[in-house]
Amino acid sequence: MHVGWEQLVDYWAGEGDLVEEHLFECDACAAESTRVARIVAAMRSAIPPVVSAEELSALRGRGLAIAENDFAPGVRQEVEFPDGVDLLIHHLGGLDLGGAERVDVIVRVESTGDVLWTEHFAPFDSARGEVLIACQRHFAFMPPDIVFDVRTIDGSGARTAGTFVIPHHFSGGSR
Amino acid sequence: MASESEAELCRKFAPRIRLYGLKHLRDEERARDLVQSVLLTVLVALREGRVEDLERLDRFVLGVCRNLAHKSRAADRRVEPVAEIDLPAPAPAPEDPLDHEALLRCLQALDLRSRSVLHLSFARDKSADEIAGALETTAGNVRVIRHRAVAQLRRCVEGR
Q: Domain A50-170 belongs to what architecture?
């Protein structure tokens, strides 16, 4: 009797440690678990699109070349991803995040309205009124006219705390 | 135990201990330290005749994993070796990690909801219930999306 794919995925998602004994006994299940682990490890080690101050500090500790820019809501501001930089941090500031139980960041294309990504449970700093976007060079394949909507969720519902229109230019001819 | 038997034991259990470490300590370096420490502890116990049921050695190894990983988490530091003996077989090198750009390309082939479920499950450690609340669906549906999305990612990154 082997552990099913569903159980393995649940196990790696933190649900169901009951399969653990079997994974130590069974060669086939241990091998299958390794395949799931490889994907999970990659997901965990990828830099998330929205980072906390602690995660930013850890990224600095890894020696990444990081450039930072400040943005205010409602102000259109272009940004360039220069050569020699690994990571561009957008400080989306001027936000009233007091009382927010959760913050979601919606990344959409200005010209089409297409939603590229929604970061649910985005890390945020309510004292500074700030959310940190980690813009990465491999995002260059995305459309350049990017808009970030920062949405707060609390007991009374959801509201948009700020919208940031940030057209991106990647150096090196990526766009 | 003959050294060849010990080497075989190391070859069998080292990858499983590493997986246990990755799951519970979430760090490749700490997982590799755990492999060393658990194998050393088990070998010393075997040599001193302290393993009562050799037929269930796998459970003994798992128990040592749990104890040492718990200590590592509690102290928030890497596991330190418990004995000054050489392992009869080297710890396995970690597998080649997935290239992040390849992963991103495969993720882009998934729908937005599947990508969100994977990110929240594995990068943000959110439970199925929490994810269900954010995505306005059920925990059961979150699990189904997760199973399918990981399977699709696996096929993509393995080139199948």
A: Sandwich (2.60)
- Please state, rounded to an integer, the average pLDDT across all residues of chain B: 87
Q: What is the pTM of this model?
A: 0.85
What is the distance between the alpha carbons of residues B69 and B59, in angstroms, rounded to a whole number? 15
* pLDDT for the residue numbered B90: 58
**Spacing of C-alpha A58 from chain mean position:** 15
Q: Are strands A145-154 and A79-81 parallel, antiparallel or unpaired?
A: unpaired
Q: Which of A11, A39, A104 shows the shortest C-beta gap to B157?
A: A39
A45 touching B (Cβ < 8 Å): yes
Task: List, for chain B, all residue ranges whose pLDDT scores fall below the cut of 50.
Answer: none
Q: Looking at domain B100-157, which CATH architecture does it have?
A: Orthogonal Bundle (1.10)
Q: What is the pLDDT of residue A175?
A: 40
Q: What angle do CA A33, B159, B135 make, to 5 degrees?
A: 65
Where chain A has pLDDT below 50, the residues are: 173-175
The verdict on B100 touching A (C-beta cutoff 8 Å) is: yes
Cα nearest neighbour of B96 on chain A: A38
What is the least distance, in Å, from the CA of A175 to any CA of chain B? 17
Ranges of CATH 1.10.10.10 domains, chain B = 100-157
Residue among A139, A160, A130 nearest A69 (CA): A130
Residue of A nearest to B20 (CA): A20
Its ipTM equals 0.89
pLDDT given at position B92: 58
